[in-house]
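Many introductory courses stop at the sequence. We go one step further.
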Amino acid sequence: MKTTVDVLVQKYGGTSLQTLDRVRHAALRIAAARRDGSAVTVVVSARGSRTDDLLRLAADVGAAGPSRELDQLLAVGESESAALMALALTGLGVPAVSLTGHQAEIHTTDRHGDALISRIGAARVEAALGRGEVAVVTGFQGIDRAGDVATLGRGGSDTTAVALAARLRASACEIYTDVDGVFSADPRILPAARCLPWVEPGVMAEMAFAGARVLHTRCIELAAMEGVEVRVRNASSQAPGTTVVDRPDDRPLETRRAVVAVTHDTDVVRVLVHCRDGRRDMAPDVFEVLAAHGAVADLVARSGPYESEFRMGFTIRRSQADAVRTALHDLTASFDGGVHFDENVGKVSVVGMGLLSRPEHTARLMAALASAGISTSWISTSQMRLSVIVSRDRTVDAVEALHRAFRLDRSEPADATSLTSRRSATACER
């Protein structure tokens, strides 16, 4: 950039722009940042439920999945938000220009509905900042190699904002939403959840993948790769929010709190695949189907080949189930098998650092759920996440039980006492 002024990227989500009063409130915040000396680039999502409304319209006329025309339609929501924000800023005496993904030169891969950003030119964004204007850019969208609109998937405006922040070498990327920051659990279902002042990027990426809705998973991955500092704040308050950044803790590493948060995901389906010919390893075929439809598998388990029957299980997002259902049914039928989709499940995860090195955390998770009378079927463990599948109607109960068991409502680190030691102490008291 030709200007030496610090660049700040702010992103406003749909709830932050739901009404015209909220648009005006966001415009006042943007104007204040500009008065403080920053060159401000703003990324906006579609207002309120606009994207869902457009999806319903598409379904009413027979749209059956991601396509060029659906992306053309969905892009309308962000374009509306960008123009309204530019008009609101102009009304405050702040020069502003709205830019679509095409005009901002946000180039993407060719996959409609779930495209990836490949590069950003941003010449018109830089020119606007150089003239002292606020550049208001549509999130969630770019252009593919054919010059057509391609959308980035739900939550993709976060990724647009981080990508622009990296391209413009911004001092920070502020994500404005309807909560005060990143919490130890979803505050909408658990009032005891605590706002976290900071979260490491790796932990935040795991939280986002495991169900924390506050940030798009890909935006955190991109921020970590590009060294972008992300701040999550409430658009309706002056709360300090949460900073996603690598930060050393002044406590010794192995006594630091290992568990940071509990997340939950009800947009999940358990898929069971089987083939009666146990000599046939269907796993490569199954993963090829998932990859072709952009479906990410989690909690994968399998048996065979070389048994009487090949079996494989995994979870995918409920929103991706329809896209792979027919393909998996066709695949298993051709190998004398079948596939079953179980939608009555939820995924609950404990997220942190060094969890696999501390087996007492897995024991505590299982004990807490058993004490609450919550049955678990599948469990997956790693250094950063412990995930279990529970009945869908017990998902919130599981979040409450685990949040309480790991004492995440407290700011001080959980003690390092093992589950075994606590049980011995309890036995002595008896």
